[in-house]
Amino acid sequence: MKKKSKRYKLIEKKKIKDKISLEKSLDLVKENCTSKMEESVDLSITINTKQSKGGDFNLRTVVKLPNGNGKKFKVAVLCEQEKVDEAKKVGADIAGSQDLLDNISNGKLNFDKLICTPGMMSKIGKLGKILGPKGLMPNPKLGTVSNDLKKSITDIKTGLVEVKNDKDGNLALSIGRKNFSREKLIENYKYFIEFLKKEKPENIKGEFIKNVFLTSTMGISYKLGGKN
Question: Which contiguous run of DSSP H or E holds residue 173?
């Protein structure tokens, strides 16, 4: 069993079993960000996926928080050779055509997000077994298949993030970093909750958002309740 650090033991003393307000939980989470790393402030949410018909609901979409989440992504663009320079000029960290396909085929995935032009999608299909498990397969619904490279790259670099639930209805999202102001974190939180409510299918009966927890990368979680 892994031994707990002195830092973590001190944080554990601040554990609260009952539901608490968003404001109080944010204060505690930020207070607990005592590690040397730039910790993120994260949401862990359980949604109701049981539909009255048509099987379980699966959420997979993208959201752009009003203040971003502070995470920096290394973006690669797979495009036609004549568009490579353009992609680099509008912010791509990596851009390529056949050379990038070859690198991916050889398992060189030195990027966090992959954008693909529609014309290159037919060539990337065979690499689904490599990209899929890493969550890197471009998808039009997620804004990663586009001819508007500037918009796609800018969106990702300014906070457009993917949201999806697992088989148990759990989803996770970072709403900022420990250096974000309380006000910015609250704004991001409320924006996302309202966004999530709008994603509820009509044939899901009862409460859609079942549980909400707030934590930090190296901290402990707090269950939110009340008027959040």
Answer: strand 170-177
pTM of the complete model: 0.84
- pLDDT tens by residue, 53-108: 878 999 999 999 999 999 889 999 999 999 999 999 999 999 999 999 999 999 99
Would you identify the CATH topology of the domain 19-70+160-223?
Ribulose 1,5 Bisphosphate Carboxylase/Oxygenase (3.30.190)
Sign (positive/negative) of CA torsion 150, 153, 156, 160?
positive
Q: Can you give the residue ranges of every domain in the chain?
A: 19-70+160-223, 75-157
18-61 tens-digit pLDDT = 899 999 999 999 988 888 888 999 999 999 999 888 789 999 99
Residue with structure tokens 């209805």?
169
What's the N-to-C CA distance of the chain in angstroms? 37
- According to CATH, the topology of domain 75-157 is Rossmann fold (3.40.50)
Asked whether the beta carbons of 46 and 221 are under 8 A apart, the reply is no
Contact status, residue 140 vs residue 81, Cβ threshold 8 Å: no
Q: How far apart are CA 170 and CA 166, in angstroms?
A: 5
Q: In what order do the strands lie in the sheet with 75-78?
A: 94-96, 75-78, 113-116
